[in-house]
Amino acid sequence: MQEQRRIGHSTNLVGLSTDLLGSATFNEHPMEIHLSGVREMNKNLFEMLSQAESLAEAGDAFYKYMMAVFGIDPEQMEKERAEAEKGGVKLRRYRSSFLRLLKGWGYDSNGPEGAVLKGWVESRFGLFPTFHKSILGRVGGPDWATYVEEKMSSRFHNNSIYTQLDMVYEFSQWALAKFTAPGQPHIRLYRGTNSFDEHQVVKRIDKKTVVMRINNLASFSSDRSVADCFGDTIVEAEVPAVKIVFFNTLLPIHPLKGEGEYLVIGGDYRVTASYF
Fold it and tell me: Could you identify which of 137, 145, 176, 227 might form a hypothetical disulfide with 190, taking C-beta atoms 3.0 to 4.6 angstroms apart as the criterion?
């Protein structure tokens, strides 16, 4: 099968060519990357995290920091709502938060929340999604227009949502290097699938090994038996740690706890595909 042209922005916020970042070569030989300015703009946070003695302690500190900075703590929201109602002011139903996006992703990665997350990857890493509800082909086509409409929905962009996701990514990278996978360039992960529409085979190497173009954001599991619940074909990949946006033990409270789930930035991966 002939290799398809990779589609992505010519620029991103990690300082590497998007073609390189999305290539199988990068995924096999990754290098450290960071989103420009995130750690520099949050020095106090990362100084505080450096004092944590466990991932649980660091996760709790990060969670509280995000709740305070972006005003998305449930108790704080209830207090504001009560005060607004006393003054006869109608308060906005909620402030958009990364937790709301993760919850929506858990229900349906092709829903509006999924579009916002894929749009964040597109903005920060330069990689276009390959699938959202259907295969995304020509930029500007009707399927692409649906994706753009959902990713730009004002209901999710009222609270610096991309900045929140930037911080989640950088905290994930910090936690992987410090506690979860120190010194490990890759983590072996699994994904179950019944269709190759979302993740297209670019090149066949042998009977079980292929180069697969993973959607710009995709869910994987650290547990092969869990991946089996989502499809008859099990895709096994060595995922670069630098491409992990979120993982299930990162925070004390979040909606993706039950499936050993990892959110992974896509591109071309050399994977093995086999029946369970």
Answer: 227
d(CA 245, CA 215): 14
Encoding tokens for residue 105?
A: 């992703």
- The mean predicted confidence, pLDDT, of the chain is 88
Contact 199, 218 (CB under 8 A): yes
In contact, 273 and 207? CB cutoff 8 Å:
no
CA angle centred on 18, ends 127 and 203, rounded to 5°: 75
Q: How many domains, the chain?
A: 1
In the DSSP assignment, the letter for residue 32 is -
* 200 assigned to some structural domain: yes
Q: Could you tell me if residue 13 is inside a domain?
A: no
| Confidence (pLDDT) at 207 | 87
Assigned domain for 10 exists: no
Tell me what the mean pLDDT of segment 187-207 comes to: 88
Predicted pLDDT at 260: 78
β 261-275/131-132 pair status = unpaired
pLDDT of 140-193, one tens digit each?
788 999 999 999 988 898 899 999 999 999 999 999 999 999 999 999 999 998
Neighbours of 140 (CB within 10 A): 7
Q: How far apart are CA 66 and CA 50, in angstroms?
A: 17
Question: Looking at the domain assignment, is residue 180 inside a domain?
Answer: yes
Q: Are 142 and 132 in contact (CB under 8 A)?
A: no
Predicted confidence at residue 1, as pLDDT, reads 39
Say whether 188 sits in a helix, a strand or coil.
Answer: strand
The rounded distance, in Å, linking the Cα atoms of 123 and 6 is 16
Range of the domain at 124: 18-275
Q: How far apart are the first and last CA of the chain?
A: 25
